[in-house]
Design a protein that fits this description.
This is 2095_t:CDS:1. The protein is an all-alpha fold. It folds into three domains: about 90 residues; about 120 residues, no CATH class; about 120 residues, no CATH class. Helices cover about 75% and strands about 0% of the residues. The protein contains 17 helices and no strands. Helix 4 packs across helix 11 and helix 15 runs antiparallel to helix 16. The longest helix has about 40 residues. It is flat, with a radius of gyration of 28 Å.
Length: about 375
């Protein structure tokens, strides 16, 4: 019952109406159903341990045959049990993943993140979309309202005037789901936002639907983001484990006297992209207009190399840390803006990690 995330009585009452064969209308059907569910669970969830349970399984199958006395009815029962077990196991896995993802985000919630979110509240109680929320759910600010609106067909909630409602509901949902430990910090703002929604929408059912949609959207996207981050961590671990000293030596050999580092062919190969494509992609992703200028291409190349060293060659850090520090000094002098430099390094990190993850996943699928 725990593994299927349902009490015994619910399992029986869910399967029973789906049985159509009249020969399954037996006084001891609950016992028969329980046996079929157990057999299905063993077969679907514990096939590696078949030697442990095979004798019990065969004895139970004989019990079912004796009690039902009809092969077609027995097959229908077992098929229904299989469908139920598979569906509920999948649902439980998804539910557990969501629970773990929400717990992960709650652990990372800080007073500073809450401050950023509530700072976006307008005087009337509505909220603007916070970069913090969009980063946590991995959805661009420009896309988030359009995306979340797809959750409903309600004309009132899809109308143009509903946009501030969605922004506000996203903020309240995120605070409730991701930052319950900091409730005292945002409770007043949350209550003001809820009053705004009630006054503006004027329809309790529509308001509930709106909040249900944003709750679901926040949880699903948090789950996707945490899952994506875990895959990245696993991929980076694979790359670090397989890293050879030759790669980081090739990278630092490209360092110039001023500290800049050209992108080496070995890095291009690891990232599955030519040098020009790497630079162009970083320029597209970065928001600071200064860094998009041609004279900063060397800074972009240097940042990519630093990110690759940090993420893929960490176990050889002692060999390249001096080159790394010299390159960081170069970036600081060239850019002359701490925020722009941080954005560049973050962008390079994201690019390197994403490309490395894609490469590892493709190789695993090929294997």
């Amino acid at each position: 019952c725990d593994e299927l995330d349902a009490p015994k009585e619910e399992i029986i009452t869910t399967i029973q109406p789906k049985l159509t064969n009249k020969k399954l209308q037996l006084p001891n059907l609950p016992s028969i159903l329980s046996t079929a569910i157990n057999l299905s669970y063993l077969k679907k969830a514990a096939p590696k341990h078949e030697s442990v349970w095979k004798d019990k399984h065969d004895k139970a199958r004989k019990y079912l045959s004796d009690q039902i006395g009809d092969e077609d009815a027995e097959k229908e029962l077992l098929d229904c049990a299989d469908d139920y077990v598979i569906d509920n196991c999948i649902k439980k896995v998804i539910k557990d993943k969501k629970r773990i993802a929400v717990a992960t985000v709650q652990e990372s919630a800080t007073p500073e993140k809450c401050d950023d979110i509530v700072s976006k509240q307008n005087n009337d109680g509505s909220f603007e979309v916070s970069e913090t929320i969009c980063k946590e759910i991995d959805v661009p600010v420009t896309n988030v309202v359009t995306e979340v609106k797809k959750c409903t067909q309600n004309p009132k909630l899809r109308s143009p005037k509903s946009e501030p409602w969605w922004k506000t509901a996203l903020a309240t949902s995120y605070l409730n789901i991701a930052a319950p430990h900091h409730k005292k910090q945002w409770e007043d703002k949350h209550d003001k936002a809820r009053k705004y929604l009630s006054d503006q929408i004027g329809d309790a059912d529509a308001e509930k639907e709106l909040l249900d949609c944003t709750d679901k959207y926040i949880i699903e996207n948090i789950t996707k983001k945490v899952d994506k981050d875990h895959k990245k961590e696993a991929a980076i671990a694979v790359v670090q484990e397989s890293a050879s000293p030759d790669k980081h030596k090739e990278i630092v050999s490209k360092q110039k006297d001023d500290g800049s580092i050209e992108i080496d062919d070995s890095v291009c190969k690891e990232l599955h992209a030519p040098k020009e494509e790497i630079i162009d992609t970083i320029k597209e992703n970065i928001t600071n207009p200064k860094l998009k200028l041609p004279e900063f291409s060397s800074s972009l190349a240097t940042a990519i190399n630093l990110s690759y060293l940090k993420n893929a060659a960490d176990k050889y850090k002692g060999d390249w840390v001096d080159n790394y520090n010299k390159a960081r000094d170069y970036l600081s002098k060239q850019i002359g803006d701490a925020d722009a430099e941080k954005e560049l390094l973050d962008c390079a990190d994201e690019y390197v990690v994403d490309k490395t993850t894609d490469k590892v996943i493709k190789e695993k699928k090929r294997d």
